[in-house]
């Protein structure tokens, strides 16, 4: 039985976004002393953290061993693999599974670096975005250093920069609508430790959402296939995990495009949802994503400083401790079950590192499963009361759930672009639009190609 329950949302300590110390964030770790700036407070400032768990896994790794310099544990093979040509059963109408062994890394960008924008693929995706009818706000990229280094941008409400202000557009998915529903999410994989997480989830009949990094998909395509075939939701998390607001329009298109492509090549289906790394999204990123038929998913935020991030990402680096993560989790769970909290929620976790998988399977999920009343843990698409098929373009129910581009009002031949707008609430309020140039071609030729394509277009 839990003993530590917070009395109101207003008393909740801040829960740090996992980008603390890495990119833009105004969030502070849960127990950072008042006035301590995010990104500069070592976890060692506080060494004692209080939490109460209803249950733990009998086979859990001891908390004292879930540390940055932990010895590498033995990794495990996937408990299930699927032959090429197998028809998915979890997703109605999905095509047969491709042969992952045929994946040729040389056909993709280098791993873990921002993709070049001069490839034939990216040039085509730039054209597609230009032809989409979605207006891209003319907003300059942010500079490295996050909110403190971009004070004007952070204060600009028309930019709607979630990281710095918590601003959301009405297309952003940040919660599950129904109380006690939990949209699960594990980011940054697949990894060598994902099979352990999958085995745990399978043993407990839990489905979740994996926000996959394209570079990791290249490395572990069979793991992604098992995630998908076992009924988990697969979504885009870029190619190289950059802070998207710092990139040019063309780089954002390349990062999202290559991630969509490698997932399609491995699974046969293309995700309809994406999560910006570090939650770093503004109206420019939103518009480009919309033009690429991707709906943003972030995670739940209950105050300017408190998000539903366990901060498990920072276990690997030693920026936080296992006890601190469990205190964060206890705060989150207490809030989610509070009568003051009217909706469900989306929790951010990671499957990239041994430590974050250990804390999830050993502590967070065993505790969550023992709590009363029970959480309903499910993929994010499911907590939105949509069929799993709506997680993919090829199986989406277009009649009841039009994809972003088809939901867009295409403005034909606007001379200024100022009257062009998109429906579906990208929330940009910014009538200015920018030109997305084709590398080596230039905007004039891009426009000519758009005209030749015969597609209705918005002059960009
Ligand atoms: Zn991430």
From TrEMBL:
- Give the UniProt entry's GO cellular component terms: plasma membrane; side of membrane
Look at the named UniProt entry and state the broad enzyme category this protein falls under: hydrolase
What GO biological process term is on the record, naming one? fungal-type cell wall biogenesis
**What PROSITE patterns does this protein's entry cite?**
NODB
So where does this one cross the membrane? none
Q: Which SUPFAM superfamilies match?
A: Glycoside hydrolase/deacetylase
**What is the reaction catalyzed?**
[(1->4)-N-acetyl-beta-D-glucosaminyl](n) + n H2O = chitosan + n acetate
Q: Keyword check for Membrane, yes or no.
A: yes
Which membrane topology describes this protein?
Lipid-anchor; GPI-anchor
The identity of this protein, by name, is chitin deacetylase
- Read off the lineage from the record: Eukaryota, Fungi, Dikarya, Basidiomycota, Agaricomycotina
